[in-house]
């Protein structure tokens, strides 16, 4: 049996599969179920300063090769969400608090609170493709991003991860800006901005019209981004985008990721996807003579 | 693919004050207790349990209460809506004598279950609980299928005066009931569950839903039970462990709202 534990900076994970933000993570009960289903760490729903209802439905549809969503960052606000975080403080796996904001000041306040509520790290959502003023609008400005990361790093002790969008001209420059701000890890990629139109009514189906595409279809985009980023920075990368099987995870490791996040595959394979993917990683590593995840990380740079 | 199929409204019938049934062509197989996501383009998409089932035509029954149901209420036959599903698990009709307890519009989704039970020649007793007799609907339809129908009104304007759960207590005392099926206000269903002791119990839960396919977590109750996918029908044994059952729901932002 290979050792599938992995290290992201100061965080040790029993396995390299993290629950991606926005999936089964609105309350403590849902996150507990994902912990019980074998996730190596949980990333919370993206939380802001104030409660936010998100967009009207339809918010999620399944297309031929992936899911298209525009939830609109619904969340109860950091103070109420803290009550859910506190219930998970005894959890044996790290809970990573995803946060979104429009300014450095708000990001710092959110990170502080996440730290108080027991988060093992924070993940900055600077990549949501469909929320005005937030997300991607913050994450494609390298100067602003570096300033945000560096102010959070000065104020909190827990590691800071930065989740990036592929819907930018040069994702490597943005990852480098986050590294200059002293980020502890890069998470790549968030969903890819897209749209689906209903032909009978000529209406875009999502209420927000545009949304973020995820699942199998975006895996090559994610793998390419991780491959480019991991070679240009000296901090760990967590790969996200279409991880559905153990072999998908192996591909991300070879591209340079030290762990992967799983979201859409909770739909495709059910909540047990974490156990299934870990087992598949293990089988593959045994078959190919790998003993540790670290031996695979960046194997494709040759 | 899991996207709305555009279909045309065939009929729109007023059942009681502010309550309508619309039917539409939708040839997919559906079992009682399952639901559709009904899309009104440009307005919203909402979960609606099936209230009429034939091979090619399905129906939903709803009270005019929010933006989406207002829009649906005023759509005329010939109008287009989007439908996806069916979603959820549906009722499991077992036992010889079945008791159905519907509170308010809850009776709408129980009715196809009663009709199916009667087709299988299962003895069926139905309690329809409403605030006042003007809100009563489906009484005739339920009698026509051969069920014993009892009515309770909060104000005593028809039938038993009081809550449906109280009337159910009397029925459970007098009759040997094998299984209880219910849909209605959650505090009513919780009281009913407490009256059932060891009698098997199936309740249909309603929560604010977003994705409807089991990933967003919006409709979760207890330890991550997804009303859209693991439910909407849950048994009594499960519900006794769901701490939020009958206590609170969560709004679109995830804030807890007490019942």
Per-chain topology:
The complex is a heterodimer of chains A (302) and B (259).
Chain A: E1 6-8, E2 11-13, E3 17-19, H1 28-36, E4 41-43, E5 60-63, E6 66-69, H2 78-87, E7 95-99, H3 104-116, E8 121-125, H4 136-139, H5 142-155, E9 160-164, H6 171-180, E10 185-188, E11 192-195, E12 197-198, E13 203-204, E14 210-214, H7 219-230, E15 237-240, H8 246-255, E16 259-262, H9 265-269, H10 273-288
Parallel strand pairs in A: 3-4, 3-16, 4-7, 7-8, 8-9, 9-10, 10-15, 15-16
Antiparallel strand pairs in A: 1-2, 5-6, 6-14, 11-14, 12-13
Helix pairs in contact in A: 3-5, 5-6, 7-8, 8-10
Chain B: E1 5-16, E2 19-25, E3 35-40, E4 44-53, E5 57-63, H1 67-74, E6 80-87, E7 97-103, H2 106-119, E8 123-130, H3 139-144, E9 148-153, E10 160-161, H4 164-174, E11 179-183, H5 186-196, E12 201-204, E13 220-221, E14 225-226, E15 233-235, H6 236-239, E16 248-250, E17 256-258
Parallel strand pairs in B: 7-8, 7-11, 8-9, 9-10, 11-12
Antiparallel strand pairs in B: 1-2, 1-6, 2-5, 3-4, 3-6, 4-5, 12-15, 13-14, 16-17
């Amino acid at each position: 049996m290979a050792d599938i534990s992995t290290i992201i900076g100061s965080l040790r994970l029993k396995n390299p599969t993290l629950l991606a933000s926005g999936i089964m993570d609105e309350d403590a009960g849902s996150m507990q179920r994902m912990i019980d289903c074998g996730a190596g760490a949980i990333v919370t729903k993206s939380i802001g300063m104030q409660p936010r209802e998100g967009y009207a439905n339809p918010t999620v549809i399944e297309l031929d090769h992936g899911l298209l969503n525009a939830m609109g960052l619904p969340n109860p606000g950091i103070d109420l969400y803290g009550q859910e975080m506190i219930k998970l403080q005894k959890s044996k796996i790290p809970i990573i608090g995803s946060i979104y904001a429009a300014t450095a000041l708000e990001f710092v306040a959110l990170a502080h609170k996440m730290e108080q509520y027991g988060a093992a790290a924070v993940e900055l959502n600077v990549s949501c493709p469909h929320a005005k003023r937030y997300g991607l609008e913050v994450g494609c400005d390298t100067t602003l991003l570096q300033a945000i990361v560096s102010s959070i790093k000065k104020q909190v002790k827990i590691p800071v991860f930065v989740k990036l969008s592929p819907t930018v001209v040069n994702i490597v420059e943005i990852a480098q800006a986050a590294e200059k701000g002293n980020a502890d890890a890069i998470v790549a990629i968030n969903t890819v901005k897209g749209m689906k139109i209903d032909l009978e009514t000529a209406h875009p189906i999502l209420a927000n019209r545009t949304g973020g595409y995820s699942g199998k279809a975006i895996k090559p985009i994610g793998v390419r981004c991780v491959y480019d980023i991991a070679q240009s920075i000296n901090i760990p990368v967590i790969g996200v985008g279409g991880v559905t099987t153990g072999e998908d995870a192996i591909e991300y490791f070879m591209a340079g990721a030290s762990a992967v996040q799983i979201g859409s595959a909770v739909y495709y394979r059910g909540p047990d996807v974490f156990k299934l993917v870990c087992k598949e990683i293990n089988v593959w590593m045994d078959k190919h003579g790998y003993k540790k995840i670290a031996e695979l990380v960046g194997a494709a740079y040759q | 693919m899991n996207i709305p199929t555009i279909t045309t409204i065939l009929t729109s019938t007023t059942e009681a004050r502010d309550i309508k049934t619309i039917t539409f062509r939708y040839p997919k197989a559906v079992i009682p207790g399952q639901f559709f996501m009904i899309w009104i383009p440009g307005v919203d998409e909402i979960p609606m349990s099936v209230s009429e089932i034939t091979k090619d035509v399905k129906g939903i029954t709803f009270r005019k209460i929010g933006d989406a149901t207002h829009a649906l209420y005023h759509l005329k036959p010939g109008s287009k809506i989007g439908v996806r599903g069916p979603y959820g698990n549906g009722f499991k009709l077992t036992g010889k004598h079945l008791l159905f307890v519907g509170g308010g519009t809850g009776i709408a989704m129980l009715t196809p279950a009663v009709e199916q039970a009667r087709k299988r020649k299962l003895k069926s007793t139905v309690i329809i609980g409403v605030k006042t007799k003007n809100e009563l609907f489906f009484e005739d339809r339920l009698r026509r299928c051969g069920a014993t129908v009892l009515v309770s009104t909060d104000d005593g304007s028809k039938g038993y005066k009081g809550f449906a759960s109280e009337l159910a207590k009397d029925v459970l005392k007098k009759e040997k009931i094998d299984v209880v099926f219910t849909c209605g206000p959650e505090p009513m269903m919780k009281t009913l569950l407490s009256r059932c002791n060891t009698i098997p119990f199936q309740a249909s839960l309603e929560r604010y839903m977003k994705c409807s396919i089991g990933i967003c977590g919006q409709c979760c109750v207890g330890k991550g039970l997804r009303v859209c996918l693991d439910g909407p029908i849950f048994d009594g044994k499960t519900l006794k462990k769901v701490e939020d059952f009958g206590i609170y729901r969560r709004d679109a932002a995830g804030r807890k709202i007490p019942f």
